[in-house]
Amino acid sequence: xxxxxxxxxxxxxxxxxxxxxxxxxxxxxxxxxxxxxxxxxxxxxxxxxxxxxxxxxxxxxxxxxxxxxxxxxxxxxxxxxxxxxxxxxxxxxxxxxxxxxxxxxxxxxxxxxxxxxxxxxxxxxxxxxxxxxxxxxxxxxxxxxxxxxxxxxxxxxxxxxxxxxxxxxxxxxxxxxxxxxxxxxxxxxxxxxxxxxxxxxxxxxxxxxxxxxxxxxxxxxxxxxxxxxxxxxxxxxxxxxxxxxxxxxxxxxxxxxxxxxxxxxxx
Length: 267
Description:
Layout: H1 5-20, H2 49-66, H3 69-83, H4 93-106, H5 123-133, H6 143-155, E1 162-164, H7 172-176, H8 179-185, E2 193-195, H9 198-213, H10 221-233, H11 239-249, H12 258-265
Parallel strand pairs: 1-2
Helix pairs in contact: 1-9, 1-12, 4-5, 6-10, 9-10, 11-12
């Protein structure tokens, strides 16, 4: 899928406005658990969890290259369950898919890894593992990242509304601020063109990252992914805040427009 340059710039503009809000990076609160025993001891002494998790991804990427093959699934399990908070990888289709992803990655066939958002292909755990193996090439794709991307694409829409296939979620905030509810409330909005490939998510994230990097040299793919994750969960300064304020201050066709969003976030 080819995203228009104008929309990429508009999306980047919104992300920068969110970033400029006080303490946005400090509000990212994914703690780093105890590392697996076979990992070298490492200190993450950054000032924020945001910075520490960026360091962690670089560290785990190096560790993946050093550890034995039978330890790679142990590392994957740590990423999925200890760090990611999902159930442990056990025998079954999820384990087989992650094993296959790892095998393809280390046989230089990472370009052959295909994941569908619309099928039961365990998008979240698989993308978590991939994002740690190569954070420059892969990013986490879970319900919160999709939630944020779909809302941002909705706000910056032009004539055509493009969105990603929604992933199942137990997150109460994503459910409470469901974009589907808004689209039902305003039936005059066109139905979106749905994208279901993980590669399309990566394409958009990489283009967004490149645009963000023009003004923030240290910005990378993991930074974009983590900011989107934070925006979905932050009731006070994230997308739920913008959604509430838009509903209160907008009417008619101006609802959830880029112009109105800029006004709200610049308050």
